[in-house]
Specification:
The protein has 153 residues and is mostly helical. The chain is built from five helices and three strands. It is globular.
């Protein structure tokens, strides 16, 4: 997956999408589609692991960090149902891996991975809380000048 630029490394808020990493750009774009955390994980997983839900846990830390960086600058927000969560609650949601992924005991398409997860005590999520990302007005960043496209007929 892509490099994640930590929030603390930014001297100023991003002014264009060019100030974001590729992964942060993807998270921001998907937030404007009101994507759930699980859907985002599904879409951002490299194709080699795409068909295997139980392999996707590996990508949660990078996605979480990218989303937290965007949240910290007010580019996205986190919703539970129709309610926008406070910054503190939203950060807690994004930093909790169980909100992105849980073990699926019925997915035995990769027996080795399934066995490792069982041995490690991976748990299956029992609640159905659906956290979603949403883009904010501040998150409507322009593309950098060098990437702006002009159309002519």
């Amino acid at each position: 997956m892509n490099e994640v630029r930590p929030t603390s490394g930014w001297a100023r808020p991003p002014r264009s999408r060019g100030d974001l990493t590729g992964l942060q750009q993807e998270v921001l774009v998907e937030a404007f589609e009101s994507v759930s955390l699980a859907e985002l994980l599904n879409w951002c997983t490299p194709s080699i692991d795409g068909p295997y839900w139980n392999r996707k846990w590996r990508y949660v830390p990078e996605l979480s960090a990218a989303a937290v960086a965007l949240l910290d600058f007010g580019l996205i927000e986190v919703l539970r149902g129709q309610r926008v969560l406070s910054l503190q609650d939203a950060r807690a949601v994004l930093l909790d891996p169980s909100n992105w992924w849980s073990f699926d005991r019925s997915d035995r398409s990769d027996e080795d991975e399934w066995s490792k997860l069982v041995d490690a005590g991976a748990t299956t999520r029992t609640d159905d809380v659906d956290y979603r990302l949403a883009g904010t007005d501040r998150g409507k960043l322009p593309w950098p000048q060098s990437e702006q496209r002009t159309f002519s007929l």
